Amino acid sequence: MKRTVRTAAVLSAAALVMAGCAGGGDDVQPSGRATAEDGAVVVVVGASPVPHAEILQFVQDELAADAGIELQIREFTDYVLPNTALAEGELDANYFQHLPYFEAQVEEQGFDFDHFEGVHIEPYGLYSESVDAVQDIPAGGTIGITNDPGNQARALDLLVEAELITLADTEGDATLLDIEDNPKDLQFVETAPEQLVVSLQDVDAAVINGNFALEAGLNPAEDAIVLESGDDNPYANFLAVRSEDKENEAIVTLDELLHSDEVKAFIEERWPAGEVLPAF
Fold this sequence. Notes:
Elements: H1 7-13, E1 18-20, E2 41-47, H2 49-62, H3 64-67, E3 69-76, H4 81-87, E4 93-98, H5 99-109, E5 113-121, E6 125-127, E7 142-146, H6 149-161, E8 166-167, E9 179-181, E10 187-191, E11 205-208, H7 210-215, H8 220-223, E12 226-227, E13 237-242, H9 249-258, H10 261-270, E14 277-278
């Protein structure tokens, strides 16, 4: 049986929607309007705590000073506020999302955003506290799934890979309404992505985002009963910016550091089982 998620980690995942994390002082303004005491240009970046903020902290600790920038890292535990904060000018960039989610948000919210290339992939996983294999999921069982349209299609694709369902052909992203065959008569429980770990004990299995699984003490490479492949994976996470800042020198420098050999080595050493994969 897969291990029960630690209570402390669950509480952490359900904690305040936004928490501050520092690479410097608290009085921060977006880049180009603030410099550190040593003259470095301050770049304010919003990020999910794991692995994004960890990767950014490595950049801040090991690479940023020599590149003439200083990172101010602000952690967010949901997928809504980082884009809102970026649009409102509270951040210079954010690092938490993949292209399908980014495109959905830009279309729905009208954000004037751009983005750089992918930095890392967090494989999606199907987790359970009650069964050890997909075939053990009972008939009529319940499956937790994100209510986020930008990720629900990804979750459904994983369930297709697990041979639990099939999907009808659709022009856009698949939703629960596009399930064609459901031989086990599975029942789907939609919830906010950050709450899926919390509700894992109440369902037979749940498809959970890699960052929330890691925050809760789950190891995707070891604990998932089905894990998304990293090969040709379109869900690499990247640095997003306001369109006007796509060529901002300090932000371009940060993106270059995120694609450095040092960051690639850090990801591979920090998550050696493939829980997080470099995308470059």
